[in-house]
Amino acid sequence: MIKLHDKYFKPFISTQEIDDAVTRMANDVANDLGDEIPVFIGILNGSFMFVSDFVKQYPKPCEVTFIKLASYEGVKSSEDIQRLIGLTQDLTGRTVVILEDIIDTGNTLHEVHRIFKNEGVKQLLIATLFYKPEAYKKDFKLHYVGKEIPNKFIVGYGLDYDGLGRDLPEVYQLKTTQHMTNIVLFGPPGAGKGTQANFLKEKYNLVHISTGDVFRFNIKNETALGVLAKSYMDKGHLVPDQVTIDMLEAEVEKNADAEGFIFDGFPRTNAQAKALDELMNSKDSQINGMLALDVEDEVLVERLMERGKTSGRKDDSDEGIIRNRIKVYYDETAILEEYYTEQNKYFGVDGIGSIEEITERLCNAIDKL
Ligand code: AMP
Known about the structure:
This protein has 13 helices and 16 strands. The chain is of the alpha/beta class. The site of adenosine monophosphate has 17 residues, from helix 5 and helix 6.
């Protein structure tokens, strides 16, 4: 995800997809024009990248020039299109191919047709890399279309939002849902995730989802999910991925208006981490960072045994089960450090100290996200 001015944009069309569409268009035009040398006319500013890549792929001799017409302001296509600048060449009897980055309402195209009516060209062909059929209000034929896209605002590959984004090599789409801050609180059992989540959720106005708590709630209420989860939890094993993922998704859906989430105890496996990324993606959002509390094993055992005296949790009162939970963490969950490090989203935080000290360390890390 990227931010341009005040708006967020998510990846939409990759460089590979663009490349494929441009190559296909160049070959289609070349096949149709035979030995004729066309004049390609790019419409500035947006088409500069497309024209550059298109003529590099065009397998035969051609001429290239640019004109400037449209003024787009902000995200709205402006109604009053400015006058043509830059057409100095005599095009009488020539085959002209207009190269447009995008055709939405068709207003620019209307102006192009009006101007070229008097130029005496042999034929005027229109080639556009992107086309929004839902927005198009004119009848002019589009001879070559790279890719049809929905009627959403896009930037990149020559297209801008208020001047920014033209330089991006791929295309991004405007994110219309609200921006969220999503944090994974990570660490072995007893690291203090739940305690810290309670402070962080207040400070940052986030919804705290602890998968362990949701399972325990289900166990208490003797739901089918609770009965299933109990058989794993009592031994200190992980509940199967799909069960956990479905439950997590349901919890996120219940909080559709949240400004963001603290995930505590989730993800615990690679499959869960991937599912979480997909879920966030479907909400036009992402995980901003994983904050990992580092605490030595012996301190963990001590803390959990202490907690077991009052928590009533079976998995907190037996040293064997506690050690097994810590082992499961290192065997199955700790690998997620790598998953988030690869995305530059892993932040280790010292988990030894007073509750306030640790909260402060976590807040410092969150404020930098
Ligand atoms: P916790 O309260 O986070 O220590 O979790 C208690 C127990 O709930 C764990 O030992 C697992 O049996 C189960 N559990 C919680 N979260 C998950 C998860 N993401 N994946 C699988 N099992 C989980």
